[in-house]
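Now for today's protein:

——
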Amino acid sequence: MSVFDSVSRMLDAAQRRSLPLWELVLEASAQESGMSRDDSLRTMQQRLAVMRQADAGYNPAQRSPSGLSGGDAEKLRVHAASGATIAGPFVGSILAAALRMGECNACMHRIVAAPTAGACGVLPAVLLPYAAQFGANDEALVRALYVSAGYGAVIARRASISGAEAGCQAEIGSASAMAAAALVQLHGGTDAQTAHAAAIALKNLMGLVCDPVAGLVEVPCIKRNVIGAMNALSAAELALAGVESRIPVDEVIDAMRAVGTAMSPALRETGHGGLAASPTAVAFREAFFGT
């Protein structure tokens, strides 16, 4: 059985073999994909590079084809730079980065699905500002990405990373759990703390529905990337402080799967429930698609 069938099995394997968690995930990923260790590393480095390119290539003047999104990240960047924020420049940079990536996705830029396109802003929004704030180098960021990938693999196998299958909890929730674990790794936390952070992050977003307006990955998806990033930061801080999840992360993942199964189909990316069914959303859909 793969180490990615459960977090507990993954962490036990790392401890038993005296391997850093990121190294275990790298090894297992390379083996599963048929890559060499060096090729796997190069692939992950490329994904980090694409995250950076998408962030740097953001155009505040560009709007999505629907006109629903674009330009908001620049508003947040200006606000964060003004010194008038409630939470300060570091948090402001995370908020802006999450919006930038979500808007880039809506405007058809090249992004990294992490784990999905709709949740593409969460990981970059915590990793890139963290690197700028704390001076983390690319090697540290790549290692954090492997840790996040390990958690993403477990969630995908035990539950789902698809909004159509299990609601937005499976997309933004999964991305937030992955980002929380990555932050703990980056900040020198233990393997056990990465698990607590992932569990806390996933619990906080359990039950989140997938209700995209007009079926487009814009409203409310882009702003949910912001929530996912801030949730990841909060969960990581809690875990690093020694706060533990009372429910083990594997059980949290199983609970998310059960919630997704019980969720009405109208709340799973069909565009028939939640915000997608609001009068404003219906009017937009009819005007945009002519139906």
Observations:
- The first helix runs from residue 7 to 16.
